[in-house]
Amino acid sequence: MKLGVIGGGAWGTALAQVAAAGGRETLLWALEAEVVAAINERHENSLFLAGVPLDPHIRATSDLGELDACDAWLVVTPAQHMRSVLARGPLGDRPLILCSKGIEEKSGALLHEVAREAAPNSPIAVLSGPTFAHEVASGLPTAVTLAASDSALGEQLRERIARPQFRIYVTDDIAGAEIGGAVKNVLAIACGIVEGKGLGQNARAALIGRGFAEMTRFGLAFGARRETLAGLSGLGDLVLTCSSTSSRNFSLGKGIGEGRAPAELLSDRRTVAEGAFTAPVLARIARERGIDMPIVQAVDALLTGGASVDTVLNEILSRPPKAEAL
Length: 326
Ligand SMILES: NC(=O)c1ccc[n+]([C@@H]2O[C@H](COP(=O)([O-])OP(=O)(O)OC[C@H]3O[C@@H](n4cnc5c(N)ncnc54)[C@H](O)[C@@H]3O)[C@@H](O)[C@H]2O)c1
Ligand SMILES: O=P(O)(O)OC[C@H](O)CO
Known about the structure:
The chain has 326 residues and is an alpha/beta fold. The protein has helices at residues 10-20, 33-42, 82-88, 111-118, 133-137, 151-161, 174-196, 201-221, 226-229, 232-241, 248-257, 262-267, 275-289, 294-304, 309-317, and strands spanning 3-6, 26-29, 58-61, 72-75, 96-98, 124-128, 142-148, 166-171. The protein has an 8-stranded mixed sheet with strand order 3-2-1-4-5-6-7-8, sandwiched between helices. Helix 4 links the parallel strand 5 and strand 6.
């Protein structure tokens, strides 16, 4: 199975590295001409994944039409651009493996719903889990969830993509895999704020625990299964992203906690902190559906409502006591 990768950011490049392992030709579409040139001429993505030597079996292109030669695509654009990029590609009926993490802001759709509308004839799978791109691209071990409603497709993709250092667990719970990856980015911003504000390790752990309760409430409301939310793509990725400045979402939160303005932090960056786009839509859906998500609402109030960290913190801490149950 020849794999194509749509998106030449850090994660698309790392996935191309996984796909090319063992000498398998892999085609990567990138938006930026300089990324295409750097990969083809120097086997490096100096813009988004500097310092990691890339497999020479990866070839980059700026022409989406060339991806017609591939049997399946790993789709790795930022969540808000997935629909428009897919609309420009030669879709056909090839499987799409969605590797981005987010919710479409305008429509409130999960990414498999976006892909289903954009590519009605393509079977859809989702790949998600604790995966800092630079670690995966350097061959360090991790494990991920691969969700496909067609179990034969899930197995076929697992066989093609898995490596000893890139262990894949298969499920049919697409919504569960997507919701974990989308919600954890917002919670990582909150954990970064705790770090930047110097609130301590206890506060961060408490936030991970209560954040996971929010993720679970939201997931169950959308048909996700508990074991998926408590697995690699949910809790696993939540713990990773809430613990390290290697996370763009955590770093964004840390800057906010240190007193910098969210708009200034966001305008400075070339890389994507998906939680900043997911927070408003997630908060909106939770309000509409009556799902209690105080941490997500707090992040949204900070990012889009102009609230101060102190005000939001005070509101969270002065909530009436409640039972620990979901
Ligand atoms: N970086 C990681 O470690 C990692 C790991 C797992 C999942 N992800 C997810 O993968 C997705 C892509 O993130 P990334 O880290 O590869 O990106 P990145 O932050 O490294 O790079 C930004 C990407 O956005 C693209 N982009 C900017 N404007 C665009 C436009 N108008 N149309 C289409 N693309 C545009 C750029 O071409 C580039 O590929 C995100 O949803 C992210 O959450 C990232
Ligand atoms: O850098 P972040 O916060 O986008 O996190 C990257 C990955 O999603 C970690 O699994």
